Amino acid sequence: MQTEARVGIAAATMDSGAAAAAARRYTTQPPPPPPPQQQLHRHQPQLGTVPHLLAGGVAGAVSKTCTAPLARLTILFQVQGMHSDVATLQKNSIWREASRIVYEEGFRAFWKGNLVTIAHRLPYSSISFYTYERYKKLLQMIPGLDKNGGFGADVGVRLIGGGLSGITAASMTYPLDLVRTRLAAQTNTAYYRGISHALYTICRDEGVKGLYKGLGATLLGVGPSIAISFCVYETLRSHWQIERPYDSPVMISLACGSLSGIASSTITFPLDLVRRRKQLEGAAGRARVYQTGLFGTFGHIFHTEGLRGLYRGILPEYCKVVPSVGIVFMTYETLKSIFTELASDD
Predict the structure, then answer these.
(1) How many domains in the chain?
(2) What distance separates the 2 farthest-apart alpha carbons in the chain?
(3) By residue range, what is the domain housing residue 238?
(4) What CATH code is carried by the domain that includes residue 110?
(5) Per-residue pLDDT tens for 81-99?
(6) Can you tell me the distance from the alpha carbon of 280 to that of 213, in angstroms, rounded to the nearest whole number?
(7) Has this prediction a pTM greater than 0.85?
(8) Contact present, 94 and 101 (Cβ < 8 Å)
(9) How confident is the model at residue 72 (pLDDT cuts 50, 70, 90)?
(10) Which is it for the CA torsion 334, 340, 345, 346, positive or negative?
Protein backbone atom coordinates (compact mmCIF):
# COMPACT_ATOMS: atom_id res chain seq x y z
CA MET A 1 0.00 0.00 0.00
CA GLN A 2 1.64 3.14 -1.16
CA THR A 3 1.37 6.62 0.33
CA GLU A 4 2.10 9.88 -1.47
CA ALA A 5 4.18 12.81 -0.19
CA ARG A 6 2.01 15.79 0.72
CA VAL A 7 3.67 18.26 -1.69
CA GLY A 8 0.39 19.91 -2.59
CA ILE A 9 -0.29 20.99 1.00
CA ALA A 10 2.95 22.94 1.26
CA ALA A 11 2.56 24.46 -2.21
CA ALA A 12 -0.96 25.66 -1.46
CA THR A 13 0.23 27.69 1.53
CA MET A 14 2.81 29.69 -0.41
CA ASP A 15 1.92 33.10 -1.84
CA SER A 16 2.89 34.02 -5.38
CA GLY A 17 6.03 35.94 -4.35
CA ALA A 18 7.35 33.13 -2.19
CA ALA A 19 6.58 30.67 -4.94
CA ALA A 20 8.48 32.73 -7.49
CA ALA A 21 11.47 33.06 -5.14
CA ALA A 22 11.41 29.35 -4.53
CA ALA A 23 11.31 28.72 -8.26
CA ARG A 24 14.38 30.95 -8.79
CA ARG A 25 16.26 29.14 -6.04
CA TYR A 26 15.47 25.75 -7.57
CA THR A 27 16.79 26.92 -10.95
CA THR A 28 20.17 27.84 -9.48
CA GLN A 29 20.45 25.25 -6.73
CA PRO A 30 19.33 21.66 -7.28
CA PRO A 31 17.15 20.17 -4.54
CA PRO A 32 18.74 17.69 -2.13
CA PRO A 33 18.40 14.05 -3.13
CA PRO A 34 15.43 12.22 -1.59
CA PRO A 35 15.99 9.58 1.08
CA PRO A 36 16.92 6.10 -0.17
CA GLN A 37 13.44 4.73 0.51
CA GLN A 38 11.87 7.39 -1.71
CA GLN A 39 14.46 6.80 -4.45
CA LEU A 40 13.70 3.08 -4.40
CA HIS A 41 9.97 3.72 -4.38
CA ARG A 42 10.23 6.06 -7.37
CA HIS A 43 11.71 3.34 -9.58
CA GLN A 44 9.58 0.44 -8.33
CA PRO A 45 7.33 -1.14 -10.93
CA GLN A 46 3.65 -1.54 -10.21
CA LEU A 47 2.59 -4.89 -8.78
CA GLY A 48 0.41 -7.09 -10.92
CA THR A 49 -2.96 -8.44 -9.86
CA VAL A 50 -1.78 -11.92 -8.81
CA PRO A 51 1.14 -10.77 -6.58
CA HIS A 52 -1.14 -8.13 -5.06
CA LEU A 53 -3.83 -10.68 -4.22
CA LEU A 54 -1.24 -13.15 -2.94
CA ALA A 55 0.39 -10.58 -0.64
CA GLY A 56 -2.94 -9.63 0.92
CA GLY A 57 -4.13 -13.23 1.30
CA VAL A 58 -0.93 -14.55 2.90
CA ALA A 59 -0.77 -11.53 5.23
CA GLY A 60 -4.28 -12.25 6.50
CA ALA A 61 -3.65 -15.98 6.93
CA VAL A 62 -0.39 -15.46 8.85
CA SER A 63 -1.98 -12.86 11.12
CA LYS A 64 -5.03 -14.99 11.92
CA THR A 65 -2.96 -18.10 12.64
CA CYS A 66 -0.68 -16.21 15.04
CA THR A 67 -3.61 -14.75 17.00
CA ALA A 68 -6.08 -17.67 16.76
CA PRO A 69 -6.14 -18.39 20.54
CA LEU A 70 -7.13 -14.81 21.38
CA ALA A 71 -9.64 -14.77 18.52
CA ARG A 72 -11.37 -17.87 19.89
CA LEU A 73 -11.46 -16.39 23.39
CA THR A 74 -13.06 -13.23 21.98
CA ILE A 75 -15.79 -15.24 20.21
CA LEU A 76 -16.53 -17.33 23.31
CA PHE A 77 -16.88 -14.21 25.45
CA GLN A 78 -19.06 -12.49 22.85
CA VAL A 79 -21.61 -15.31 22.71
CA GLN A 80 -21.72 -16.21 26.41
CA GLY A 81 -24.74 -14.04 27.11
CA MET A 82 -26.92 -15.84 24.57
CA HIS A 83 -27.63 -19.07 26.47
CA SER A 84 -26.14 -18.32 29.90
CA ASP A 85 -27.35 -16.57 33.01
CA VAL A 86 -25.78 -13.11 32.84
CA ALA A 87 -25.21 -13.10 36.61
CA THR A 88 -22.88 -16.10 36.31
CA LEU A 89 -20.69 -14.33 33.76
CA GLN A 90 -19.43 -11.65 36.14
CA LYS A 91 -16.80 -14.01 37.62
CA ASN A 92 -15.43 -15.06 34.26
CA SER A 93 -12.02 -13.90 33.07
CA ILE A 94 -9.58 -14.50 30.23
CA TRP A 95 -7.40 -16.72 32.40
CA ARG A 96 -10.37 -18.73 33.70
CA GLU A 97 -11.75 -19.32 30.20
CA ALA A 98 -8.32 -20.18 28.78
CA SER A 99 -7.75 -22.67 31.61
CA ARG A 100 -11.14 -24.26 30.93
CA ILE A 101 -10.28 -24.73 27.24
CA VAL A 102 -6.95 -26.39 28.06
CA TYR A 103 -8.49 -28.63 30.76
CA GLU A 104 -11.62 -29.69 28.86
CA GLU A 105 -10.56 -29.57 25.20
CA GLY A 106 -6.78 -29.58 25.14
CA PHE A 107 -4.26 -26.99 24.00
CA ARG A 108 -4.95 -27.57 20.30
CA ALA A 109 -8.52 -26.37 20.86
CA PHE A 110 -7.25 -22.78 20.80
CA TRP A 111 -6.92 -23.27 17.05
CA LYS A 112 -10.37 -24.83 16.64
CA GLY A 113 -11.82 -23.54 13.40
CA ASN A 114 -8.46 -22.13 12.26
CA LEU A 115 -8.54 -24.09 9.00
CA VAL A 116 -11.78 -22.42 7.97
CA THR A 117 -10.36 -19.14 9.28
CA ILE A 118 -7.47 -19.45 6.83
CA ALA A 119 -9.87 -20.57 4.07
CA HIS A 120 -11.90 -17.43 4.78
CA ARG A 121 -9.03 -15.04 5.41
CA LEU A 122 -7.05 -15.82 2.25
CA PRO A 123 -9.75 -14.60 -0.15
CA TYR A 124 -11.05 -11.97 2.29
CA SER A 125 -7.68 -10.26 2.78
CA SER A 126 -6.79 -10.62 -0.89
CA ILE A 127 -10.03 -8.98 -1.99
CA SER A 128 -9.97 -6.24 0.66
CA PHE A 129 -6.38 -5.13 -0.02
CA TYR A 130 -6.73 -5.40 -3.80
CA THR A 131 -10.07 -3.62 -4.05
CA TYR A 132 -8.90 -0.93 -1.61
CA GLU A 133 -6.14 0.08 -4.01
CA ARG A 134 -8.55 -0.03 -6.97
CA TYR A 135 -11.29 1.96 -5.20
CA LYS A 136 -8.71 4.50 -4.12
CA LYS A 137 -7.53 5.04 -7.70
CA LEU A 138 -11.12 5.43 -8.89
CA LEU A 139 -11.94 7.92 -6.12
CA GLN A 140 -8.82 9.96 -6.90
CA MET A 141 -10.21 10.53 -10.40
CA ILE A 142 -13.07 12.53 -8.89
CA PRO A 143 -12.36 16.32 -8.96
CA GLY A 144 -11.36 17.50 -5.51
CA LEU A 145 -10.33 14.02 -4.36
CA ASP A 146 -7.17 13.67 -6.43
CA LYS A 147 -3.71 13.08 -4.95
CA ASN A 148 -3.08 16.81 -4.53
CA GLY A 149 -6.43 17.51 -2.89
CA GLY A 150 -4.91 17.99 0.55
CA PHE A 151 -5.19 16.18 3.87
CA GLY A 152 -9.00 16.20 3.99
CA ALA A 153 -9.28 14.69 0.53
CA ASP A 154 -6.75 12.00 1.43
CA VAL A 155 -8.70 11.03 4.54
CA GLY A 156 -11.96 10.97 2.58
CA VAL A 157 -10.49 8.73 -0.12
CA ARG A 158 -9.09 6.32 2.49
CA LEU A 159 -12.34 6.17 4.47
CA ILE A 160 -14.59 5.62 1.44
CA GLY A 161 -12.15 3.26 -0.27
CA GLY A 162 -11.66 1.23 2.90
CA GLY A 163 -15.39 0.99 3.55
CA LEU A 164 -16.17 -0.15 0.02
CA SER A 165 -13.35 -2.70 0.03
CA GLY A 166 -14.54 -4.15 3.35
CA ILE A 167 -18.13 -4.47 2.14
CA THR A 168 -16.97 -6.11 -1.11
CA ALA A 169 -14.73 -8.64 0.64
CA ALA A 170 -17.27 -9.47 3.37
CA SER A 171 -20.10 -10.02 0.90
CA MET A 172 -18.06 -12.41 -1.24
CA THR A 173 -16.72 -14.55 1.63
CA TYR A 174 -19.53 -14.39 4.21
CA PRO A 175 -20.57 -18.10 4.38
CA LEU A 176 -17.03 -19.05 5.37
CA ASP A 177 -17.08 -16.38 8.08
CA LEU A 178 -20.31 -17.81 9.49
CA VAL A 179 -18.93 -21.37 9.48
CA ARG A 180 -15.76 -20.16 11.19
CA THR A 181 -17.79 -18.57 13.99
CA ARG A 182 -19.86 -21.68 14.58
CA LEU A 183 -16.85 -23.99 14.65
CA ALA A 184 -14.98 -21.70 17.04
CA ALA A 185 -18.00 -21.37 19.35
CA GLN A 186 -18.29 -25.14 19.85
CA THR A 187 -16.95 -26.37 23.19
CA ASN A 188 -17.42 -29.97 24.34
CA THR A 189 -20.17 -31.08 21.95
CA ALA A 190 -19.10 -30.96 18.30
CA TYR A 191 -22.30 -30.50 16.27
CA TYR A 192 -20.32 -29.54 13.16
CA ARG A 193 -17.47 -31.90 12.21
CA GLY A 194 -15.72 -29.67 9.68
CA ILE A 195 -16.13 -27.06 6.97
CA SER A 196 -18.01 -29.17 4.44
CA HIS A 197 -20.20 -30.79 7.12
CA ALA A 198 -21.04 -27.38 8.58
CA LEU A 199 -21.99 -25.96 5.19
CA TYR A 200 -24.16 -28.99 4.43
CA THR A 201 -25.83 -29.04 7.87
CA ILE A 202 -26.63 -25.33 7.85
CA CYS A 203 -28.20 -25.58 4.38
CA ARG A 204 -30.19 -28.68 5.47
CA ASP A 205 -31.42 -27.27 8.81
CA GLU A 206 -31.77 -23.57 8.03
CA GLY A 207 -31.80 -23.31 4.25
CA VAL A 208 -29.35 -21.43 2.05
CA LYS A 209 -30.41 -18.21 3.79
CA GLY A 210 -28.88 -19.65 6.94
CA LEU A 211 -25.43 -19.13 5.43
CA TYR A 212 -26.09 -15.39 5.45
CA LYS A 213 -27.43 -14.93 8.99
CA GLY A 214 -26.02 -11.73 10.45
CA LEU A 215 -24.93 -10.36 7.08
CA GLY A 216 -26.64 -7.03 7.77
CA ALA A 217 -24.73 -6.49 11.00
CA THR A 218 -21.55 -7.62 9.26
CA LEU A 219 -21.85 -5.13 6.40
CA LEU A 220 -22.86 -2.37 8.80
CA GLY A 221 -19.80 -3.06 10.91
CA VAL A 222 -17.15 -4.13 8.42
CA GLY A 223 -17.48 -0.99 6.30
CA PRO A 224 -16.60 1.42 9.13
CA SER A 225 -14.11 -1.06 10.62
CA ILE A 226 -12.01 -1.47 7.46
CA ALA A 227 -12.44 2.22 6.60
CA ILE A 228 -11.12 3.33 10.00
CA SER A 229 -8.34 0.73 9.94
CA PHE A 230 -7.02 1.68 6.50
CA CYS A 231 -7.47 5.41 7.09
CA VAL A 232 -5.71 5.51 10.47
CA TYR A 233 -2.95 3.20 9.23
CA GLU A 234 -2.14 5.16 6.06
CA THR A 235 -2.44 8.56 7.77
CA LEU A 236 -0.12 7.60 10.63
CA ARG A 237 2.30 5.81 8.29
CA SER A 238 2.42 8.77 5.90
CA HIS A 239 3.21 11.29 8.65
CA TRP A 240 5.74 8.94 10.26
CA GLN A 241 7.62 8.46 6.96
CA ILE A 242 7.67 12.22 6.34
CA GLU A 243 8.95 13.03 9.83
CA ARG A 244 11.31 10.03 10.16
CA PRO A 245 12.07 8.75 6.63
CA TYR A 246 14.97 6.53 7.71
CA ASP A 247 13.04 4.42 10.25
CA SER A 248 12.50 0.75 9.48
CA PRO A 249 9.45 0.27 7.21
CA VAL A 250 8.67 -3.00 9.00
CA MET A 251 8.49 -1.36 12.42
CA ILE A 252 6.47 1.55 11.04
CA SER A 253 3.92 -0.85 9.55
CA LEU A 254 3.75 -2.88 12.78
CA ALA A 255 3.22 0.16 15.03
CA CYS A 256 0.77 1.99 12.77
CA GLY A 257 -1.17 -1.21 12.08
CA SER A 258 -1.55 -1.93 15.79
CA LEU A 259 -2.87 1.58 16.51
CA SER A 260 -5.29 1.39 13.60
CA GLY A 261 -6.61 -1.93 14.91
CA ILE A 262 -7.28 -0.48 18.36
CA ALA A 263 -9.15 2.47 16.87
CA SER A 264 -11.36 0.39 14.58
CA SER A 265 -12.11 -2.29 17.21
CA THR A 266 -13.13 0.25 19.86
CA ILE A 267 -15.63 1.95 17.59
CA THR A 268 -17.15 -1.11 15.90
CA PHE A 269 -16.99 -3.80 18.61
CA PRO A 270 -20.73 -3.73 19.53
CA LEU A 271 -21.61 -4.38 15.88
CA ASP A 272 -19.15 -7.28 15.81
CA LEU A 273 -20.71 -8.76 18.94
CA VAL A 274 -24.22 -8.57 17.46
CA ARG A 275 -22.89 -10.11 14.25
CA ARG A 276 -21.46 -13.10 16.13
CA ARG A 277 -24.68 -13.71 18.02
CA LYS A 278 -26.82 -13.46 14.89
CA GLN A 279 -24.52 -15.97 13.20
CA LEU A 280 -25.18 -18.45 16.02
CA GLU A 281 -28.97 -18.13 15.88
CA GLY A 282 -30.42 -21.60 15.44
CA ALA A 283 -27.02 -23.31 15.55
CA ALA A 284 -27.05 -26.98 16.66
CA GLY A 285 -30.84 -26.99 16.63
CA ARG A 286 -31.18 -24.47 19.45
CA ALA A 287 -34.16 -22.17 19.72
CA ARG A 288 -33.92 -18.60 18.49
CA VAL A 289 -32.87 -16.09 21.15
CA TYR A 290 -33.42 -12.83 19.29
CA GLN A 291 -36.79 -12.58 17.57
CA THR A 292 -36.17 -9.13 16.08
CA GLY A 293 -33.82 -7.57 13.58
CA LEU A 294 -30.49 -5.85 14.01
CA PHE A 295 -31.61 -2.91 16.12
CA GLY A 296 -33.98 -5.08 18.15
CA THR A 297 -31.03 -7.34 18.99
CA PHE A 298 -29.04 -4.32 20.14
CA GLY A 299 -31.92 -3.32 22.40
CA HIS A 300 -32.33 -6.84 23.78
CA ILE A 301 -28.64 -7.13 24.69
CA PHE A 302 -28.56 -3.66 26.24
CA HIS A 303 -31.73 -4.36 28.27
CA THR A 304 -30.65 -7.77 29.57
CA GLU A 305 -26.87 -7.28 29.92
CA GLY A 306 -26.39 -3.52 30.02
CA LEU A 307 -23.80 -1.46 28.14
CA ARG A 308 -21.14 -3.86 29.39
CA GLY A 309 -22.85 -6.64 27.44
CA LEU A 310 -22.21 -4.85 24.15
CA TYR A 311 -18.49 -4.86 24.94
CA ARG A 312 -18.28 -8.40 26.31
CA GLY A 313 -14.94 -9.79 25.13
CA ILE A 314 -13.33 -6.41 24.37
CA LEU A 315 -10.26 -7.20 26.53
CA PRO A 316 -9.17 -10.32 24.59
CA GLU A 317 -10.09 -8.40 21.42
CA TYR A 318 -7.59 -5.68 22.37
CA CYS A 319 -4.98 -8.33 23.18
CA LYS A 320 -5.65 -9.88 19.77
CA VAL A 321 -6.01 -6.83 17.56
CA VAL A 322 -2.69 -5.18 18.46
CA PRO A 323 -0.53 -8.03 17.13
CA SER A 324 -3.12 -9.14 14.56
CA VAL A 325 -3.50 -5.91 12.59
CA GLY A 326 0.15 -5.06 13.10
CA ILE A 327 1.23 -8.43 11.68
CA VAL A 328 -1.15 -8.24 8.71
CA PHE A 329 0.08 -4.81 7.60
CA MET A 330 3.72 -5.70 8.29
CA THR A 331 3.46 -8.97 6.32
CA TYR A 332 1.59 -7.24 3.49
CA GLU A 333 4.17 -4.48 3.11
CA THR A 334 7.06 -6.97 3.36
CA LEU A 335 5.59 -9.26 0.69
CA LYS A 336 4.88 -6.30 -1.58
CA SER A 337 8.52 -5.23 -1.29
CA ILE A 338 9.71 -8.77 -2.07
CA PHE A 339 7.41 -9.11 -5.09
CA THR A 340 8.40 -5.66 -6.32
CA GLU A 341 12.11 -6.51 -6.11
CA LEU A 342 11.49 -9.77 -7.97
CA ALA A 343 9.58 -7.88 -10.67
CA SER A 344 12.36 -5.29 -11.03
CA ASP A 345 14.97 -8.03 -11.45
CA ASP A 346 13.06 -9.62 -14.36
Answers:
(1) 1
(2) 79
(3) 48-345
(4) 1.50.40.10
(5) 665 545 445 556 788 888 8
(6) 8
(7) no
(8) no
(9) confident
(10) positive
